[in-house]
Design a protein that fits this description.
about 200 residues, alpha/beta, three-stranded mixed β-sheet, two-stranded parallel ribbon, 6 helices, 5 strands, about 10% strand
Length: about 200
């Protein structure tokens, strides 16, 4: 990567892995282990040199948010799998570590924000939308009451933000950066349809 002299590096999540034995631990111990994983990653000489000399944007995914992956089968059924289910203390602790270990680094070009998701205009021509696909993610298989809401991937506020920002973008190239593959978005049909409508307009 360094040999290609990149202008901008995008870190799209799973920057670290907590490990199966950390998911069922008490919050304090879990977060201590998560912080240690970040420290180990940043101590790796090649990675350290790259992020120390290259402008970058970072987003988190399930592992650096502190959630298990799909293949993890915990003995404890109370282990949360979706960000919308986790307590606020869990969310705040994960965010504090993410900010201190990645977003506060010298070459991070993420704007100051109360949210993990953000947009960045690069050289007035390329706009990158980095999405937080974990903090507000509902279980897509769960049936919600008609008077509540449909399962959401991004949360209503982030969905509206992305559609609004994408519609108003004057960049020649708009890059959607997600830790979850686009094909997985189909599990959230209401959002999938709304996004595709706006994206289709921008591509014309």
């Amino acid at each position: 990567i360094k040999g290609q002299n990149p202008d901008l590096l995008l870190l799209l999540g799973d920057n670290v892995y907590l490990g199966d034995d950390g998911y069922g631990a008490p919050l304090k111990r879990k977060m201590e282990k998560l912080a240690a994983r970040y420290d180990a990653q940043l101590a790796e000489p090649h990675f350290d040199e790259l992020v120390s000399n290259t402008p970058f944007l970072a987003i988190w995914d399930n592992h650096d948010f502190g959630l298990p992956g799909d293949k993890f089968r915990p003995g404890d059924a109370t282990v949360e799998r979706y960000g919308a289910e986790v307590p606020q203390a869990f969310r705040d602790a994960s965010r504090e570590i993410f900010n201190s270990k990645l977003k506060s680094l010298k070459h991070s070009v993420a704007p100051p924000s109360s949210t993990v998701y953000c947009a960045h205009l690069f050289e007035d021509e390329i706009k990158c939308f980095l999405l937080d696909v974990r903090s507000f993610q509902d279980d897509p298989s769960k049936v919600y009451p008609p008077n509540r809401h449909h399962p959401t991937l991004l949360g209503e506020e982030q969905e509206n933000w992305l559609l609004r920002e994408l519609e108003s973008s004057t960049a020649g190239i708009n890059v959607i950066c997600s830790g979850i593959p686009y094909r997985y978005w189909k599990k959230y049909p209401r959002w999938f349809e709304a996004f595709n409508k706006v994206a289709a307009k921008k591509s014309k």
